[in-house]
Amino acid sequence: MTHGAENLMMKDITFSVGAVTFTYSLTAEQKKFLRLAQDTHVDLGQWPDFSENMTQVIQDAIPDSLKLPSESQLNYVRTISSDLNVPLPDKYDQSALTCLSFIADYKPAHDRVLAVFNRIRGRLLG
What we know:
elongated; 10% strand; mainly alpha; disordered N terminus; 2 strands; two-stranded antiparallel ribbon
């Protein structure tokens, strides 16, 4: 970014982190305020939720074929595999896409098993 008089003409903020480029267009009000501002350093890491938002943006920029599965995806795949007695897919713990495909294939059958289980449990407890 630029400093001094050039800051007064700034309309957009642009910075890159790796392959991700962030841009922000200043509002008219913000441009007015900038004319009054003194040189100031702002640590973005101190802003609430900045780190989480940055992490989410970076994760969203990863192609689906390269994304790692979340812990909840891994747990769900393991649960389905165990409950339906089907083998875990190869390298499921290295690919979110593999997990999502497995879940899509087996979720209907798993839902049916859970429904039957819940009916039986309800009758036994009721």
